């Protein structure tokens, strides 16, 4: 047995030790104790919530409609009845309540002490529905206001709630928890509507930004196309002055100079050119040839040294 269950059983045992007349209604959950009130046959109904003893028991008074400083809507509530499972025994706690009601008996609402007639068990405040925490999920705990709104009703009113959907709907919607939930729901709905309206208000400016982006994108594509074209022109210009291109042109010019000098020599041999003209032209052409050949040789040496 766990410590929680041990403490709970000890508290229940104290209920029997301090109150020999206790009657078990539901083992471990509900107990009844007779509590005569100035000639009125009354009783206390001790309800132990599933979380007991971590939470205090709920003690209701039967018959309903009793007036006393410790009773609110048929539920025993008093600041002096502070619950602390480690310091308070359930039996002594309940015994003190019985002592208070014996010394200062509650009175019936709408009458004087002793005017009440005997009422059956059906007029007692309805106990909480038992729950099997081992086999089902723990239900939402009732607040004190919700509990009192139920226990303050007669059996006829409770039967009406169970059989009449309209009455149950009205009762359900009157609960504070439900009203708070609807309030939160309405606030969330209004918040969503406001947010949607703000978004719609930004639609025109957002459309303008989209148009600007499209214009900038079009301008970017145009500039990029121009850049790529100029970049190609630059590469072509660089290619004309590259080492490989210059070497090729230089070789072609050397070959051209050699061909021209050979052509002049052939013209002299054919008698088409006199001696002075031949010497002058041949010398100039060979001079150009050797200058270009020298440049080619120097360029090839430099290229070879760079490659090393």
Automatic annotation (TrEMBL):
Domain VPS37 C-terminal: 224-308
Subcellular location(s) per record: Endosome
Keyword Iron-sulfur: no
Keyword Kinase among record annotations: no
Protein name: VPS37 C-terminal domain-containing protein
Annotated GO CC locations: ESCRT I complex
UniProt-listed PROSITE patterns: VPS37_C
Gene Ontology terms describing biological process: protein targeting to membrane; protein targeting to vacuole; ubiquitin-dependent protein catabolic process via the multivesicular body sorting pathway
Domain of life where this protein originates: Eukaryota
Transmembrane segments: none
Organism per entry: Lichtheimia ramosa
Lineage, highest ranks first: Eukaryota, Fungi, Fungi incertae sedis, Mucoromycota, Mucoromycotina
Principal localisation: other
Keyword tags: Coiled coil, Endosome, Protein transport, Transport
CDD domains: UEV_TSG101-like (cd11685)
Coiled-coil residue windows: 192-233
Family: Belongs to the VPS37 family.
A Pfam entry, by short name: Mod_r
Annotated segments matching region Disordered: 104-134
């Amino acid at each position: 047995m766990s410590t929680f269950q041990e403490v709970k059983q000890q508290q229940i045992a104290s209920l029997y030790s301090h109150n020999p007349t206790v009657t078990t209604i539901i083992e471990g959950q509900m107990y009844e104790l007779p509590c005569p009130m100035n000639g009125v046959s009354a009783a206390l109904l001790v309800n132990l919530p599933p979380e007991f003893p971590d939470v205090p028991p709920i003690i209701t008074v039967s018959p309903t409609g009793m007036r006393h400083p410790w009773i609110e809507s048929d539920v025993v509530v008093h600041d002096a009845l502070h619950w602390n499972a480690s310091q308070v025994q359930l039996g002594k706690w309940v015994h003190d309540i019985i002592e208070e009601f014996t010394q200062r008996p509650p009175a019936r609402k709408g009458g004087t002490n002793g005017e009440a007639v005997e009422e059956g068990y059906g007029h007692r405040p309805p106990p909480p529905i038992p729950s099997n925490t081992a086999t089902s999920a723990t239900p939402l705990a009732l607040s004190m206001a919700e509990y009192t709104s139920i226990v303050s009703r007669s059996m006829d009113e409770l039967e009406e709630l169970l059989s009449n959907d309209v009455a149950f709907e009205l009762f359900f919607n009157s609960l504070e928890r439900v009203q708070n939930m609807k309030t939160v729901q309405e606030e969330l709905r209004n918040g969503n509507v406001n947010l949607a309206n703000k978004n719609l208000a930004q639609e025109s400016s957002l459309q303008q930004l989209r148009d600007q982006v499209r214009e900038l994108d079009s301008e970017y594509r145009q500039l990029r196309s121009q850049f790529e074209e100029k970049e190609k022109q630059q590469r072509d210009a660089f290619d004309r002055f590259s080492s490989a291109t210059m070497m090729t042109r230089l070789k072609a010019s050397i070959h051209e100079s050699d061909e021209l000098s050979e052509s002049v020599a052939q013209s002299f041999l054919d008698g088409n050119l006199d001696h002075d003209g031949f010497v002058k032209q041949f010398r100039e052409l060979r001079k150009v040839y050797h200058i270009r050949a020298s440049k080619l040789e120097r360029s090839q040496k430099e290229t070879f040294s760079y490659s090393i």
